[in-house]
Protein: NAC domain-containing protein
Organism: Tagetes erecta
Amino acid sequence: MCPPSSVVELHEYSTDETVIKSLMQIKSGVTLPSNVLTDVDPYQFAPSNLPPGMWYFRSGPKMDTKNGYWRSTGEACEIYDTALVIGLRKTLQFYEGPAHFGQKTNWMMQEFTTTEKYTSKMLFNCKFGWITCRILEHYTGCFW
């Protein structure tokens, strides 16, 4: 039997659909691309201390960092493959300081999750859902 192939490397310009399809492949045991980390919890570090251009594949509760916290900027966006919702993308903003009193920063995170329909097709015994996320610095004048 051939070893599982690897997922196409994710990058800053990957479409939402590509990210979700890659996440589904990763969940099914395909080898991770070289720019996806599983041993780093991006929620535990200030975004400026994380390596640029990396994606994070993880499961578990989200925790505030010692220097701040991530806060959702609004509703999750549905990601479609033809007419079927295959995943969700949520954008979060990093705030420095204690919760509810933090200072807004330029750091943004995009979290990607598969929908329950696809997750239930996979055989995972996991208390928390798997996500893929990336962290980018948002500059004034750029649009998300």
About this structure: The first strand starts at residue 36 and ends at 37.
